[in-house]
Write a structure and sequence with these properties.
The complex is a heterodimer of chains A (155) and B (134).
Chain A: H1 20-23, H2 34-37, E1 52-56, E2 60-66, E3 75-80, E4 83-90, E5 100-104, E6 109-116, E7 126-131, E8 134-140
Antiparallel strand pairs in A: 1-2, 2-8, 3-4, 4-6, 7-8
Chain B: H1 2-5, E1 6-8, E2 27-28, E3 32-36, E4 40-46, E5 55-60, E6 63-68, E7 79-83, E8 89-96, E9 106-110, E10 113-119
Parallel strand pairs in B: 2-8
Antiparallel strand pairs in B: 1-8, 3-4, 4-10, 5-6, 6-8, 9-10
Classes of the chains: A mainly beta (155), B mainly beta (134).
């Protein structure tokens, strides 16, 4: 279930496809540990862990990822140029010695996922929130990298 | 008693599309852990995006149904460009054994995980019946 943007620019050979970088998500480096990567999220094609959605704004991009049961302090986010890395861990629930597991479907362990972004982002302007087990990261394009509007003067 | 304490009554499909949903979004069968201790059973259910007020738990004739309604969240000023997951609701059904004290069930949602504590009833003392001589 991959929703690729249908860009009008994509058909124009003179215009570089601005979303090409989004597709690089497929080439992302996955270094997830086995317990977290076995099985895919319900109803989705297997991707890295965690599954992410990417949102596009005017000069920024937002990422959301499902990380239920994680603690905010156990999630690390780092940004370098156009690569975002999310890593973290969910520990196995602590139970007594006499406890018996009847069902264990929830993954636990460590994960790390690097995601290629469509543009270089300002590492100083990254906002992250963690609400109800969903991580939201907002990244902005540096001022100097933004496209400039050039006025056409009439002769 | 392992499988009798709490067992799943739902099929093994990843998506529990029980009939047509009125909300036009998928209903997922969430990942669940069930652990039994001496005092009771603990159930943990992954429901990312679901808060305390979005959970509906019903218990009828020893059938425990949990539903989580996920609030749709769209970052303001953004449009979806790439998706690996789709927001939906969650639903899962468990049947409880007689050993569970229904009145003592506790529930809490922490960081998108529903935690259910189901205590066991006090073991019934064997009753001795005297046979009286006629």
């Amino acid at each position: 279930m991959l929703l690729y943007p249908t860009s009008a620019f994509a058909r124009d050979p003179f215009f570089r496809d601005p979303f090409a970088a989004l597709r690089r998500l497929h080439d992302e480096i996955d270094r997830g540990f086995a317990p977290l990567t076995t099985g895919s999220a319900p109803g989705h094609a297997p991707a890295g862990f965690p599954a992410v959605n990417m949102w596009q704004g005017e000069h920024s991009i937002a990422l959301t990822a499902e990380l239920p049961g994680f603690k905010a302090e156990d999630i690390d986010i780092s940004v370098k140029d156009d690569t975002l890395t999310i890593s973290g861990q969910r520990s196995s629930p602590e139970v007594g010695e006499k406890a018996v597991w009847h069902l264990r479907e929830r993954p636990f362990g460590r994960f790390a996922r690097s995601i290629g972004l469509p543009f270089r982002v300002d590492a100083e302007k990254v906002n992250a929130r963690f609400v109800n087990g969903v991580l939201e990261i907002e990244l902005s394009r540096p001022e100097e990298d933004r496209p400039r509007r050039i006025e056409v003067k009439s002769a | 008693m392992t499988q009798d304490m709490v067992h799943r009554t739902q099929g093994d499909g990843e998506v529990a599309m029980a009939g047509q949903t009125t909300r036009g979004r998928p209903v997922y069968r969430p990942w669940t852990d069930i652990c039994e201790t001496e005092n009771g059973v603990v159930i943990a259910v992954d429901m990312p995006g679901v808060g305390t007020d979005d959970v509906d738990i019903t218990l009828e004739k020893r059938v425990l149904t949990i539903r989580g309604r996920r609030q749709a969240r769209q970052p303001e000023g953004y449009r979806l460009a790439y998706a690996e997951y789709r927001e939906g609701d969650y639903e899962r059904v468990f049947s409880l054994s007689d050993e569970i004290d229904e009145a003592g069930i506790k529930a809490a949602v922490v960081s998108g995980v529903l935690m259910l504590e189901l205590p066991k009833v006090e073991p019934a003392k064997p009753k001795r019946i005297e046979v009286k001589a006629a």
